[in-house]
Design brief:
single chain; 433 residues; alpha/beta; Rossmann fold; two-stranded antiparallel ribbon; 45% helix; EC 6.1.1.1
């Protein structure tokens, strides 16, 4: 049984920032299990940056935290129409399939997670009344400032973007949690919630923030920028191509998405796999290749191996990310070797997730509905030909036209010939003169 201090260490390790840590400690000292939620708005296709928070959730479960996964469909619609209303439901379904596949592949038990769709409570009378109360309390300046890092910024912003931070704050109350977990890009929304929820008579919650993995070209990894990210369904060839093009200047560790992914994803997952090997009671078997990201024969305590052929100096085994980063800065670790090892690790992580996608017809169906091909053309139904007989004397079987100026001569039919013969028989014979 872990102590309160040990649980707090698990909850907060590898986080960039914690707001309200004393609140979490007080709950743990009482012997209660803290309640936490992590939310995501189902907009663009999720990218591998999601591995960062999803892997961290394993620490929460180890510390007996009750975790809610919020699929914020209403938020997705409000964020400058990044998810049109007719697609939101399908995208929420797609996200749920994907998130469960990632958790399962990592061995994180989804039976201990509760998935909630935002619209199941965000359209209620009580929730909307609280939203109106916020609207008469929050200034435009504060609402705009709170969403600056999360809500899409445009020259002429929509009113919906100003509502976004308030709704995210209210989610803490309506989900009944003690703390909210998100990326450090959410910090302004978190401080907004801490300031305004008490004005409605609700408790101030704690907030946990993980670091953000830079995009492949530097800057933020974004679902709307295909060149900055790797999708969960990208092929191995696409992964290697994107990693090869990624910004990874020799000796430069700043805004380096390749190096940061090793720190924030591969090394923590490596630790999970080591814990499972030692008999961790919480973690399940996981899917696919569960071998840690270290070479056979690596020294005890190795967190990551850069694999190289012997003719290029052989593999290097790192005992910590700090050692690995120092080698990169000193140029002892070449970008090409780093990229190769990280790409191999990403491909191994994605393989079991993609296998689940290939075997799930329901997930494949939702993927097509959630992200329809923008280049697909609607197939126009061919009109059925209806035969209209030509008028008399027209058409291909009609008699040829007479030369211009002549009266056409039409041969009499058999009925006409017969009628004329009978008529002739009835006429009296005229005596010859």
């Amino acid at each position: 049984m872990s102590t309160a201090d040990e649980k707090y260490e698990l909850i907060t390790r590898r986080l960039q920032e914690v707001l309200g840590g004393d609140t979490i400690k007080a709950i743990l000292d009482e012997g209660r299990s803290p309640k936490c939620y992590w939310g995501t708005a189902p907009t663009g296709r999720p990218h591998i940056g999601y591995f960062v928070p999803l892997t961290k959730i394993a620490d929460f479960l180890h510390a007996d935290v009750e975790v809610i996964i919020l699929l914020a469909d209403v938020h997705a619609f409000l964020d400058n129409l990044k998810a049109p209303l007719e697609l939101v439901t399908h995208r929420a379904n797609y996200y749920e399939h994907l998130l469960k596949a990632v958790f399962t592949s990592l061995g994180i038990p989804i039976s201990k997670l509760r998935f909630v769709l935002g619209s199941t409570y965000q359209l209620s009378k009580e929730y909307n009344l609280d939203n109106y109360k916020l609207c008469v309390t929050v200034t435009e300046h504060d609402a705009k400032k709170a969403g600056a890092e999360v809500v899409k910024q445009v020259e002429s912003p929509l009113l919906s973007g100003l509502l976004y931070p308030g709704l995210q704050a209210l989610d803490e109350e309506y989900l009944g949690v003690d703390m909210q977990f998100g990326g450090v890009d959410q910090r302004k929304i978190f401080t907004f919630a801490e300031h305004y929820l008490p004005k409605l008579g609700y408790a101030k919650r704690a907030h946990l923030m993980n670091s953000m993995v830079p995009g492949l070209a530097g800057g933020k990894m974004s679902s709307s920028d295909p060149d900055s990210k790797i999708d969960f369904l990208d092929t191995p060839e696409a992964v290697r191509r994107k990693i090869k093009k990624a910004f990874c200047e020799e000796g430069n560790a700043e805004e380096n998405g390749v190096l940061s992914f090793a720190e924030a994803v591969l090394i923590p997952i490596n630790q999970l796999r080591h814990e499972r090997q030692k008999g961790d009671a919480l973690l399940e078997a996981g899917l696919g290749d569960q071998k840690p990201f270290v070479s056979d024969g690596a020294p005890e305590g190795t967190v990551f191996t850069i694999e190289r052929e012997e003719k290029f100096g052989g593999s290097t085994h790192y005992q910590s990310f700090a050692d690995m980063k120092a080698d990169f800065i000193s140029k002892a670790l070449h970008p090409k070797d780093l990229k190769t090892s990280v790409a191999n690790g990403i491909i191994r992580l994605l393989e079991p997730i993609q296998q689940q996608f290939k075997t799930s017809e329901e997930w494949q169906k939702e993927e097509k509905l959630a992200y329809p091909d923008p280049n697909a053309k609607d197939k126009k139904k061919k009109k059925e030909k209806v035969y209209h007989p030509p008028p008399p004397g027209k058409g291909k079987n009609a008699a040829p036209s007479a030369p211009s100026g002549d009266v056409p001569v039409v041969a009499p039919g058999p009925e006409v010939v017969h009628a004329a013969t009978e008529l002739a028989k009835q006429q009296p014979e005229t005596p010859a003169s």
